[in-house]
Design a protein that fits this description.
By secondary structure, this protein is mostly helical. It has 4 helices and 2 strands, in the order βαααβα. Helix 2 packs across helix 4.
Amino acid sequence: MSYVARKGPRVVSALGRWAYNWSGFNQYGLYRDDCLYEDDDVKEAIRRLPEKVQDERNYRMMRALHLSMTKTILPKEQWTKYEEDVKYLEPYLEEVKRERDEKIKWESNK
């Protein structure tokens, strides 16, 4: 199955941009999807990612951990921009949630 990751937010707003920049993860070069709480659905979605995307995610996470340990951030030109944030995990996560809901519905009809 082939997915195209959505780039940028659905709605660009000043408040959204402010909240995105205030959160600080972009200063480490992370995407929003890198910072999701890893519940069972997110873990399954990460497992389903193509190997190249998993490697890119792991690199961003390791770089962010290194920057955090050294108490530094990336130069401003390397920060993840609000408009360029890639929602690479979103299609996989939606699929996992759909499957889980379908499974629950199927089991409740037994």
